[in-house]
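Before the break, one more example. Copy the sequence into your notebook; we will annotate it together after we see the structure.
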Amino acid sequence: VEEAGKYDNWRERNEAFADSIKRLTGENYVATAEQADAMELGKLYAIQTTASTTEGAQYVYCKKLVKNETGERPLYTGYHSTVSAFYYGTLIVGDQFDGNFDGYSALDTNIPLSSLKEPTAFDSPTTFAVASVIPGWTAALQLMRAGERWMLYIPWQSAYGSSGNNDGTIPGYTALTFDLLLERIVE
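Here is what the structure looks like once it is written out:
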């Protein structure tokens, strides 16, 4: 008997994962800053991304874990377009592929809002430009406020697409999950 490979039926499994999140999200769409501020903690929402595909509009699905109504929002370009963040990125099977703290994974369905895992003194945030990340991150970041923490569920179309990332660590057709804490806006 041949053992099932970790990446067997990868596209189908990743699309099924994204479809299940989409079903749970329902018709909860966020398109404006006001709508982002009104997001209920722990509830799923969809934000349209700029990913260009022949399959129509693409979305990132997100769940706000921590809100900060006074934090600034990053911009796509220009001043305030660079941010500092803590993040934990996992594949649908829960394996971490990137990150700078031990956050929640794709397998964590019940995240305790009252006592969240937090970055430790040994963790350091990463600085990056809002325009230089995958479309799913860019779309969410522009609606996040500094000090907020969101879970992001990004279908492959708004992540690294059908070809995966440049160094081969993320295969094509991979849906990504991130626990993202927007620490601050750098410049």
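The chain has a mean pLDDT of 94. Helices lie at 10-25, 33-37, 135-141. Try to locate both features in your own notes.
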